[in-house]
Amino acid sequence: MVESTRIIGEDSHTERRYYLTSLTDLPIVAQYIRSHWAIENSQHWVLDVTFGEDRSVKLEKNARSNKALLTRTALNLLRDRDDTKLSVKRRRIRASQNLDYREQVLFGRVL
Q1: What residue spans define the domains of the chain?
Q2: Where in this chain does the entry annotate a coiled-coil region (predicted)?
């Protein structure tokens, strides 16, 4: 069991998560759990900041899953571009305004 507390201002929220594993070395288990949540949190942050995922319209049934899949696909395509000078947000804007760049992102075509 891992218990985590999140404090924002004066509000606090405690959550317990349970894990099943055959590992017995607690520091290694803790490292795996932390690394999993670090990836999860960083992806959520990028999706929220770049795609405004938390502000998006709430969808029902398959639409929610389909939108999440398309958003994560777009994020992966944008991250796959080798534009180290541009943030993901700037790549998204560039792809929306530049047909050649958008084709490079979608099809991996190099000009």
Answers
A1: 24-107
A2: none
